[in-house]
Amino acid sequence: MTTFWSLWITIITIATFVGVAALLVWCSRDTMGVAEGEDMGHEYDGIREINNPLPKWWSYMFWGTLVFGAVYLVLYPGLGSFKGVLGWQSSDQTVRSLQESNASIANAHSEQRLDQYARELDAAEAEFGETFKRIAYDASGNNLRPITDIAQDEEALKVGQRLFLQNCASVMLPMRVASWVTLTWQTVHGCMAVKQKPSKPLSWKAVLA
């Protein structure tokens, strides 16, 4: 992020906090010249305005959100290039290749940085690493299996099917309305694939019903 955009974001964010706090203070003061609880002299459709202050619980909650926001911006990124006291980041945005990404993750581990992406990879490795290693590597655990062998592995097919149903089906199945294809799970020439079969287009009446 350039210095200009960092300052732009920081100034606007701080100005917004200050402006909202000033507005809350101003609205909390009685400057109407009418005693509290008295009629303001305004009427609309039989409804009259009374000079009542803002509810205390509402004001306290408003101040609480401002304090929470200020603490958050101190601890986490949010003010331009400021990384926050905790040093947390979702991922390293400077990487441009797989090698740089691997090096960045290794550095995050060695420096014990709060890199969310690196931590999620660690969690995924702890939960799924053995399963994927058993599927992807041969008995020695050192060499990757050919994709044609993996495609004949019943366990690999079940894992792939579950991944497809969990992550892809909900997005791809609605495409039937637009592209008029039926998506099915099957093995084609020893490889896992999604088969597209022509189908009759759905009528809009059926879609909107």
Automatic annotation (TrEMBL):
Transmembrane listed as a keyword: yes
Pfam families: FixP_N (PF14715)
Domain Cbb3-type cytochrome c oxidase subunit CcoP N-terminal: 37-83
InterPro entries from the UniProt entry: CcoP_N, CcoP_N_sf, Cytochrome_c_Oxidase_Subunit
MF term (GO), any: oxidoreductase activity
TM ranges: 7-26, 57-76
Entry's EC annotation: 1.9.3.1
Keywords on record: Membrane, Oxidoreductase, Transmembrane, Transmembrane helix
Listed PANTHER family: CBB3-TYPE CYTOCHROME C OXIDASE SUBUNIT FIXP (PTHR33751)
Name listed for the protein in its UniProt record: Cytochrome c oxidase subunit CcoP
